[in-house]
Amino acid sequence: MLSIQDKVQQLRSLVRLLSDASEEVIQSWLIDDALSNSFEDDTKSGSIPSHRLFEARRTLLGAAGMIIDIVQDPQARLMELAAQFYEARALHIAVQAGIPDILAEDNEEDGGEKGVSLEALALAGRTGINAQKLGSVLRCLCTAHVFSEVSPDTFANTPTSKCLVNNEPLQAWISHTMGVLSYETSRKLPEVVLDPTRTHSQAPLETAFQLAFDTPLSIWPPLYADYPWAELGDATIVDVGGGVGGMSLDLARMYPRLRFLIQDQPDVVTEARLVWQKEYSEALNAGRVQLMVHDFFTEQPFPGAEVYILRYILHDQNDKNCLKILRALRPALLIQPETSRILICDQILHTTFGSTTFPALNAPAPLPANYGDASRFAHMWDLSIMGTFTGKERTVDELSVLAKKAGLRVEKVWVCRGLVWITELRLGEEVDEELEEDLEEAQRDVESDTEVEEGSEE
């Protein structure tokens, strides 16, 4: 436990850090204003902040989170954390009821900042929700700064809720992916994690998702990531397990010299062809984009490409399956070992202790190494992945271990200005897979014998 003097010193240090980071954000806003860019442009979904603003934001969030932790009563802090799912549920309700859009429709000139009365929102033709209950939901979200109560029983959009106006993808992600799939999955997560049998299961069909929905089906959401693609010139990018090729579609439009090969299961490839014919038939018909049936657990049939993308693939899988996927890709890098690379597009799970392999990723003291509050979503999503699949979001150190076992190495971690980062793998020293498996089996035997001995002593 920190002494009073330690707490005083830490709080003062955090306040200075908070002040410096805040000033950096303010300067960024002033520069944008001078360039005639509105403040709201920076708050729109998908906008990319400057590197300085990105760094200042996460420093500010990390410092603010630590200040809250220091000054708040510990019991009150824990009670608040335990009840935060009510805020999430309130957001799910507001989005499903279309509150942001209704507020914007009634005040088109300002996006809903003047406000709409609770009585008007509760009308059968608007939401049909009981006014008293709707008021409780909205006031909960006002406290979290999602909406604003501009006068008694009159609610308005804020810059945060404006991101939801006419934003069907984000609305669907909040109300369905989070509000239904992930929420119901999280409800069963304690049952799986605390169960003596289920807690050790690595079977992909024995997760909290299957338990919640009584189904053998699995799901995974899309992503988009940042990388210096222009430097690749006319390189070929192989989108391994790329679905219909959503990421490749964006890149193909942005960088007309790049070529793409999208690989997935037969039915997905069939659907991908329809998508590309509709969205960007020129690229498909010109041969810039090709589609191929491929199982990523088997050896890569297109060796020598400059880039192989694994976008939201590894985090769905346990370590054993990740090794299979990476080992199946390694031979493809042997043709052009100096230029071929694998890009893993997943969230990097950065811990508060930090990375020993890549210390440059760690936040400056006295912040937690992962910037604290700025990394909360990554850890929440890790629990979602654990509940839905048997995979996990991994730290860069864990990815480095997997890469080494697969005969690869982590070349660089690209810190993208968003939730998803890119881990670049290059060819490493070849690993004797049979010897590796023998060593792992021997280690499991030792652990098993130890458990038996401990059980006998009891």
From TrEMBL:
Is the Transferase keyword given for this protein?
Answer: yes
Query: Mind telling me which PANTHER family this protein's record contains?
Result: O-METHYLTRANSFERASE CICE, PUTATIVE (AFU_ORTHOLOGUE AFUA_4G14580)-RELATED
Q: Keywords for this entry?
A: Methyltransferase, S-adenosyl-L-methionine, Transferase
Gene3D superfamilies with a match to the protein in the record:
Vaccinia Virus protein VP39, Winged helix-like DNA-binding domain superfamily/Winged helix DNA-binding domain
Keyword Transferase tagged:
yes
Q: Which InterPro entries match?
A: COMT-like (IPR016461), COMT_C (IPR001077), COMT_dimerisation (IPR012967), SAM-dependent_MTases_sf (IPR029063), WH-like_DNA-bd_sf (IPR036388), WH_DNA-bd_sf (IPR036390)
Q: Which SUPFAM superfamilies match?
A: S-adenosyl-L-methionine-dependent methyltransferases, Winged helix' DNA-binding domain
Mark out the compositionally biased spans (Acidic residues).
Answer: 448-458
One annotated GO molecular function:
O-methyltransferase activity
Q: Where is this region: Disordered?
A: 432-458
Taking every annotated instance into account, which residue ranges of this chain make up the domain O-methyltransferase C-terminal?
236-408
State the Pfam families in the record. Dimerisation, Methyltransf_2
| Protein's UniProt name | S-adenosyl-L-methionine-dependent methyltransferase
Which residues belong to any copy of the O-methyltransferase dimerisation domain?
79-166
Mark the transmembrane ranges.
Answer: none
* GO terms (BP aspect): methylation
